[in-house]
Amino acid sequence: MHHFAYRNGVLHAEDASIEAIAAAVGTPFYCYSAATLRRHVRVFREAFGGLDALVAYSVKANANLAVLKLLANEGAGADVVSGGELRRARAAGVPAARIVFSGVGKTREEMALALDEGIHQFNVESEPELDALNDVAQSKGTKASIAFRVNPDVKAGGHEKISTGKAEDKFGVAWTRARDLYRRAASLPGIAVKGVDLHIGSQIADLAPFEAAFAKVAELVKSLRADGIAIERLDVGGGLGVPYGDAPADPPHPEEYARLIRRIAEPLGVQLICEPGRMIAGNAGVLVARVIYDKEGERRRFLILDAGMNDLIRPALYDAWHDIRPVREPAPDSARTVYDVVGPVCESSDVFARARALPPLRAGDLVAIMTAGAYGAVLSSQYNARPLAPEVLVSGGRFAVTRRRPSFEDMIALETTPDWLNG
Ligand code: LLP
Known about the structure:
alpha/beta, Lyase, Ornithine Decarboxylase, Chain A, domain 1, TIM Barrel, 2 domains, nine-stranded mixed beta sheet, 12 helices, globular, binds ligand LLP, Diaminopimelate decarboxylase
């Protein structure tokens, strides 16, 4: 459920006209709906009522400070995967006690930062990482609270590039080694074993793989307890898909997913942690662009936008399908024209949609690329020396630019030309 809809013939984000925002901000830009973001956190809050639960929003999905602050105000914590994300979460007001740190390549510097901040938990992904963390914690005279991210060897996820829970993936520790590793970790002076963690993939469109993985992990929790290791937390990761509009069936509703998590975690008597990303931010955002040209090619007709793969890379990287809507509501009976919707970047993969039937559009018209709130702006770049698209947050009828478009001077500010190149 999201808050983007036509009103008086114009696409609105909540009560704000996208046309009016475009006039004020210019295109392309990302537009997020505060009400949608809030609603998604509340689904969990309601489903987990009465339990000790931490919704650690996965910052990688959308790391805009205003988005993080809004979610923190709703009581969300953060799942971070770098020192930078940790600092962003802290800068946005997420309490350190609600932060979990995931990722296969944490450096000692990042570990030190996280220990100094006093984060809730490290999700440890390998034995060398465990040893490094033990060292760093000992050198600080403290203990690092950890869970191992165990790899349950379950296939899940919308695209092979976003599947993480199979045995051949780089993530997590092998299922077969988990008990040994836990025993070792429990003997280390710089480590406090707290829980078990998993994450099996992203854009998962049905509950079956979750159910299979959670059931396996619940068994592991029992075995570890039988080994004398006190497991008091279970982190079930993220991964629930959102409807992009291309699949015959929508992914399960977040409420059903949350109920499944509750069903697994409650009998174990653990603190429940989850790390949703896409499910919180995905359909809370759109990328708004303007048509530059309608180009009649030899074989195809191209709609060339002023947004490109540098702004939204998902179609190029994962063959992702995003709905594209004209900002001016088309008449229901308007004719459709088949376009390849492309950007201006000099790469043949700079394509948002191939052979898409759209109402007639002309140069100057605005379009919204839907469901772009997660893994959109965070994955953007300045390729082709294109400025990063600004990000706008709408709440009711208000909007605010929460990341401005960089000026040309901003874009070159980190670069220098050495003196020896002059003359
Ligand atoms: N926790 C961990 C350890 C993760 O690796 C991820 C996502 C999440 C939580 C959040 O997963 P979500 O609820 O958002 O599915 N860029 C890709 C998705 C990459 C996901 C990476 N890990 C895309 O645009 O589809």
